[in-house]
Design brief:
By secondary structure, the protein is of the alpha+beta class. The protein has helices spanning 39-42, 48-53, 55-63, 89-116; strands at 7-11, 17-26, 35-37, 67-69, 78-82. It is 39% helix and 21% strand. Strands 1-2-5 form a 3-stranded antiparallel beta sheet. The chain is elongated. The mean pLDDT is 86.
């Protein structure tokens, strides 16, 4: 029986692909459920008034009618993350910097799409 080496990869500032030893952890987005509410439903937050205005919406929301497969783990309920004690600290810092940049780019793209679709709350 052979065990495959688990790694996460990222591109450093020089454009080189770097591999870090990894381990599995529960997905922080869905908290191990494999699904989450569609961000187009509650991405800007919901208030008590949203539910008070439409009790059927509240029931459907909490029943899971608006859930989608988790965008981060693709429904697997776990994600690979760097195995910190085994990682080079400089490479680990670069990895998290790259993750932060990717998350910011994703947020910017989402805001642009929402504005293009006519949403005025962004």
């Amino acid at each position: 029986m052979s065990l495959e080496k688990m790694v996460v990869t990222y591109l450093n500032d020089d454009g080189d692909e770097i591999e870090l030893p990894a381990k599995y952890e529960v997905c922080p987005t869905c908290r191990g459920k494999g699904t989450h509410v569609n961000p187009s439903i509650d991405g800007n937050g919901l208030s008590r008034e949203d539910f008070d205005e439409d009790p059927d919406f509240e029931e459907a929301y909490f029943r899971g009618d608006y859930d989608v497969t988790c965008e981060e783990c693709k429904g697997t309920r776990v994600v690979l993350v760097p195995n910190d004690p085994q990682c080079d600290k400089k490479a680990l810092g670069e990895y998290y910097d790259a993750q932060d940049r990717a998350a910011q780019e994703h947020r910017s793209e989402c805001i642009t799409r929402m504005r293009e679709s006519g949403c005025r709350d962004v």
